[in-house]
Amino acid sequence: MDYNAHLDAAIGKLHDEGRYRTFIDIERRKGHYPHAVWRKDDGSEQSITVWCGNDYLGMGQHPVVLAAMKEALDATGAGSGGTRNISGTTVYHKRLEAELADLHQKEASLLFTSAYIANDATLSTLPKLFPGLIIYSDELNHASMIEGIRRNGGAKRVFKHNDLDDLRAKLAADDPAAPKLIAFESVYSMDGDFGPIKEICDLADEFGALTYLDEVHAVGMYGPRGGGVAERDGLLDRIDIINGTLGKAFGVHGGYIAASAKMCDAVRSYAPGFIFTTSLPPVVAAGAAASVAHLKTDQALRDLHQERAAALKLRLKGLGLPIIDHGSHIVPVVVGNPVHTKILSDHLLEDFGIYVQPINFPTVPRGTERLRFTPSPVHGPKEIDKLVHAMDNLWSHCALNRAEMAG
Question: For the Aminotransferase class I/classII large domain, which residue ranges apply (predicted)?
Fold first, then answer.
């Protein structure tokens, strides 16, 4: 077996399809986000503006967060020193879990090293707790949800995206006595559309199902205290398990679930992804707790975030660019070809100092390849002007169609 030949073939296929992904070496500088420095392979440097980051509100640079992390670092050092069960639970972890439970108006929360692990570990563990569980999963759910459901060995039903009739039909076709869970998202990050939370909760009540809501692209940004779309819509009490991240709007690192005390206790006791993983460093937990607490009261930052997103969408629509607009903070511009998408991304970076990564298959369907912009409150009018002018120039240069997509 020529193993290297197989590796060459696999990587070569990505190059041939225009889907090969490259890392660029960037250095964020405190107090200057979204501006950063791109360190090129030849040793030179270029100033760039990050337009595809998940630090949606700039909290990774917020003085409240940095002060909490410095204090924790001086008090405890770097790592936690163990799993949560063996020496890795500190006052910082408990404080963060209390903040998150309060945020989502739940009895408890449970920290994981990432929201991916939180989804994977929880969804793969639930059939152990509810034998015979059937999980109904939206077809556009995160890869971490799909993986957790796949690994659990239980029954699954994939329903068409946001299609309530299809979900109802699948629920009605199964044994009424079987335990059921509906897994879906509040904001789907590739198109920026919202899940029909209330209507899915209604179906869950009708068919006796639990609800599992992934809010990773909404926590911190929606709701009067940043509790997500479920909080915004007054539906927190109807969601059984909420998954969230600390690495996007909260600007730090980690993931979690929020649920009843019994649910969190059972998951922490049975999920290998929790039991056998070193806990978050106390310094990270401290920064995340400070961020969550701050955003419960900073509605002005959330409002400014939505204003910046609306401004960018309006400007791009004015150019006739094919953007998808479902009213969220995510701004996808569909190019429709992986090679063209990569060319646009490369030119934006090299010629204009604008960093946005191509989004290609399998993340999105073939033919819908796109650039996905994530404006933040710190992307001001100057940054928006520069981006809009660059997109106008390059769209014409590449002779791409200008036709706004329906939201």
Answer: 48-390
Instruction: Answer whether 277's CB lies under 8 Å from 283's CB.
Output: no
Cα 146 to Cα 136: distance, rounded to the nearest angstrom: 11
CA distances from 347 to 72, 224, 302, 363, 406 (A): 42, 39, 31, 22, 27
Residues 192, 84, single domain; the answer is yes
In this structure, the answer to whether residues 334 and 388 fall within a common structural domain is yes
Domain with 114 in it: what CATH number?
Answer: 3.40.640.10
Per-position DSSP letters for 23-67, written without gaps between them = --EEEE-TT-TTEEEEE-TTS-EEEEEE-S-S-TT-GGG-HHHHH
Read off φ and ψ for residue 247, nearest 5 degrees. Answer: -100, 0
Residue among 326, 351, 321, 356 nearest 341 (CA): 356
Residues 344, 290 share a domain: no
8 is a domain residue: no
- What is the widest separation between alpha-carbon atoms in the chain? 65
State the catalytic residues. Answer: 248
Whole-structure pTM value? 0.94
Q: How far apart are CA 80 and CA 96, in angstroms?
A: 14
How far, in whole angstroms, is CA 135 from its chain's centroid? 21
Nearest CA to 167 out of 132, 194, 202 is that of 202
Distance CA 191, CA 333 (A): 9
* Confidence band of 403 (pLDDT split at 50, 70, 90): low
Give the pLDDT band (50/70/90) at residue 30.
confident
Whole-angstrom CA distances from 228 to 6, 176, 217, 309, 317 are 44, 31, 8, 17, 27
Burial (CB < 10 A; 0-12, 13-18, 19+), residue 316, is buried
- Tell which of 277, 296, 315 closes a domain: 296
What count of other Cβ atoms lies within 10 Å of the Cβ of residue 40?
11
Domain that holds residue 187: 63-296
CB atoms within 10 A of CB 82: 12
